[in-house]
Fold:
Amino acid sequence: MIHSLFLINASGDIFLEKHWKSVVSRSVCDYFFEAQERATEPENVPPVIPTPHHYLISVLRHRIFFVAVIQSEVPPLFVIEFLHRVVDTFQDYFGVCTEAAIKDNVVVVYELLEEMLDNGFPLATESNILKELIKPPTILRTMVNTITGSTNVGEQLPTGQLSVVPWRRTGVKYTNNEAYFDVVEEIDAIIDKSGSTITAEIQGVIDACVKLTGMPDLTLSFMNPRLLDDVSFHPCVRFKRWEAERILSFIPPDGNFRLLSYHVSSQNLVAIPVYVKHNISFREGSSQGRFDLTLGPKQTMGKAVESVLVSSQLPRGVLNANLSASQGTYTFDPVTKLLSWDVGKINPQKLPSLKGTMSLQAGASKPDENPTINIQFKIQQMAISGLKVNRLDMYGEKYKPFKGIKYMTKAGKFQVRT
Amino acid sequence: MTDSKYFTTTKKGEIFELKAELNSDKKEKKKEAVKKVIASMTVGKDVSALFPDVVNCMQTDNLELKKLVYLYLMNYAKSQPDMAIMAVNTFVKDCEDPNPLIRALAVRTMGCIRVDKITEYLCEPLRKCLKDEDPYVRKTAAVCVAKLHDINAQLVEDQGFLDTLKDLISDSNPMVVANAVAALSEIAESHPNSNLMDLNPQTMNKLLTALNECTEWGQIFILDCLANYTPRDDRESQSICERVTPRLSHANSAVVLSAVKVLMKFMEMLPKDLDYYGTLLKKLAPPLVTLLSAEPELQYVALRNINLIVQRRPEILKHEMKVFYVKYNDPIYVKLEKLDIMIRLASQANIAQVLAELKEYATEVDVDFVRKAVRAIGRCAIKVEQSAERCVSTLLDLIQTKVNYVVQEAIVVIKDIFRKYPNKYESVIATLCENLDSLDEPEARAAMIWIVGEYAERIDNADELLESFLEGFHDESTQVQLQLLTAIVKLFLKKPTETQELVQQVLSLATQDSDNPDLRDRGYIYWRLLSTDPVAAKEVVLAEKPLISEETDLIEPTLLEELICHIGTLASVYHKPPSAFVEGNHGVQHKGLPGSAGSAESESPDAVSAGAATEAPAAVIPSQGDLLGDLLNLDLTPPATTGPLPHSGGMQMGAMDLLGGGLDSLMGAGFGAPPAAMPPAFSAPVSGSLYDLFDLDNGVGMPLGSFCPPKTVWLPAMKAKGLEISGTFVRHAGVIQMEMTITNKAMSVMTGFAIQFNRNSFGLAPAGPIQVPSPLSPNQNIEVSLPLNTVGPVMKMEPLNNLQVKKTLVVFLFRQVFLATWKDIPNENESQFQIKDCHLNSDAASNKLQSINIFTIAERTVDGQDMLYQSMKLTNGIWALAELKVQAGNPNYTVSLKCRAPEVSQCVFQSYEAVLKN
Structure:
């Protein structure tokens, strides 16, 4: 199981270590640093690194490497999932997960790690339970604690820990009972030169924020549940009911949680909400290249495409780009060769465009690689897969809760080849 | 007010200051001080000097302070064992606290203090906590047993904690069950033969029930445990599959992958025509695809596993090619894995899209990735015949880009395409030749030279091309030199008139000016062939070559089967059996896929013996790949009875592990016999009986002056339904032979003997079929001698106690070489042994050792001691050097052994002892 954990920042310093069994010398991280040196980018450091006596399994989040040391055969996914859970918990507790935040809260971090893992076995990883054991630091609580000398460690055994619904504590009380659900879909797509779709898939999630008194039992049904053939549920969802009736039936955790995530694969037709007309070309023997890019909406069901951001890694030979944008602003970093264009909202009447020239090194040959264009966007009030919630019902409690559903579509890895 | 303030005390006397604060009367001040101490500890500062002061803060009713002190204790108790004792009383008291949180915390912390003295005090509280009324305490205590076992295994066994732990599997609380399973699995890992997880249908049922209710982590432990079970029949297998399938929809990817493992394994048992089988196949695809939309680290592990799954059951993902398309900002490790899987999934149906993608990738920036993409195009050509032409034209397009590494890579794969489809695409050679000058990598140069030589008759200026390479002959790498030599000889055989000069030049370069023995030897062979019999030379050099196989990098099927049983583990990430690399895990038991009823697939002996009660397939061929298992796997498969029964009748044969029980075994025998004559299950593997297969004690005659160990019983009749085998290994005139006496002690006749060797350290394999005059009537015995060779697959085995020194080859080492080698081998590899009570003088000893081909290279006398320097080479090519110290009048010899593979030392020493003493 997980032996030790080292946190390493971007400059390669180990700024926190935690051991759950015997102490492993931090020199074990040298193997990690070696691998890091070999990889050109931090993202390319392999997640599993063998050393003579241990294995190092790492994840990179918020520019911090979380490196777990293990000694025996352990499922690597288990370790990676756990590390991501640790990061999520830190984020949950401190708002951000940065080196500064971790150092500022080092004692809470230590308490959390101790609570999450015992001898390498996960102990309590549900955020609800953790929050009962160790109260998150808030300004108010810190002040109160300083004055009264009380602690931020829970004195009681968390109530949910061992019940049949371990994700929910008992005795929840709210004056305003409300349940909000966000259907968020991300499109991953690769579009080829000619504008046809090579692959497109949708990763969807339904995130919930449920603040309901007592032990409510909710059911959520969809207009078109057949879309959801590949789903992963929060443990609270009753799987049998879903199998039989395609209805989500569950006792929700208290607060924010992810109810389900789903995947609509390339087998189904996926609508592509934007199109790109591009002409990025270099001529042999010329030190100039042409750059011409126009964006337009497509299959958006009348909704506006917002927060559009276009970025592209231009070929290494490009020295500078002299462009003009019809709207928004663009930047070009001559060192990393990253061009990014903050477009904002697409107006269908006046399509945004970015045009101009790129200067190449004099005498250099025409670059071989074709830059790929990465696009980010958001579309409010629409789930691109067409998924729609039919109704939400509550059983088990008497009051009438306030309910709300929001839809949103975002670009995930949306790439256009040129 | 943040914790960073705790880091800021950099003044002198920091420890002193902290000490004062820790002893303060004010609670708040104390707590702040402890926090400072913890903060220092987290960044690796040594604050162990404060041990007594911190421990003094332990007795408090403030839970946070208590927790902090516990944190400190866990870190430093090891370095201050005597002080740590001070804490014991508080621990014991806390274990009785009315608050379950505190009870659990105390027992948890105590387990983390790795001090022997403390563990003694831990036993009583732990026993109570294991039976605590509160499940939270029980589940914490379960993990504590694993901790304690790690510190002191004996203690845990003596105290009977293992049984208590086993009882917890039936606990009413699923979380407790999960933790008990996790703890038992961890203990079992360090204890291979303990049979801790006794899986039977009842426990399976309990685990499956707990599976639905416990936390995600618990589900992982339980699923991994379920995967070790072998169902009785396909119905049980199906019902387990049905209960595990819902886990595929879990949000935690580790749960999903563990569930995939269980399903992949148990699916083997399902008949393929069952509807459920098809349903299950369909259900497996979506979760695997979903894993690919997770974080890159998860994707990587998932992809490595999908690579295995695709090799075993390509049908699962055959329609999902698109999800493996590479995104340009994927990390490189994900890109390379995706590419691999794309090739595996390539088929006639999707080859057009795949090629378009691959071509796209070949223009990317990352060099490694581009190279692999180009290579992938070549592999597609070889795999999907219909696409070969398109692949070749794609490669030609890429060559036109003139990007150096793309061109070189393309030429290397085109060579492979030529080998798969000879005389089909020669038209492209002209284009290739244009790029001759840009090739600077040995592999590409060698490939190009091979092409020129192979098609010399169609290339007008082949001689000029090859001549141009010849200019810098000595600067080329060996690969290129060898290829050039062969190519020119081919050219000469095809166009003898114009190239005589060239061939002479290359032959002299290869034989006279080169100091590479391989090159020289090849040169001489060609020279002699050409000068004595050009016709023969033509037959040899221009012989028709076998076509290269379709997929070159498939994992060997038996290894694949084992890896499928380890989906989701490190083994699956590295594509190596777990025994090959996980440290401290020498007792890993191999897992084999269970056989599907009614099909004659090969099975591993483990699976068969475990599932012997089920309908066994007609003929059992224990798979060779029981990788670490047995040295020899005798597969004696006689037909059922004396009567001419149809083979498939009700005949049951099981393979059986002669020596079973993990790695001690030297030999396993699979044998069959009529079902009526014996009880259906003979599952218990025999252990130990062959342990000393090569134990060379008590001398028998030495034929031809060489030492021959006596026959020992390898397979006692009791264990093998009446078949007894005893045998030994001897070396006659340089040929290793296995001599066996086979005795039929059963009531009925045995026929149809066959033998099969598992892979072993020495590459031993039978040189011919075993000759047993059958039938063998009851109580008859026969002597069989089976010549062996050493060309079989070599596989390192642990332990190496099956080493045989008498098989050493004739070797003579010059003194200088010996000294150089002796110095060359690092000192860590030296081991010393004492041989007691040996009354030989040095000459006699030397002669005796020579009989087993250990040669004395030098001898000298220092201070009345005779020093013999000896060398030996094992058949698997391992050298061992020895220094034997013999002192006149002292019966104790000292042997110092140096060897690059230190594992063999013990065995060599045993051989020394055995030979010298008889």
About this structure: The longest strand of chain A covers residues 402-417.
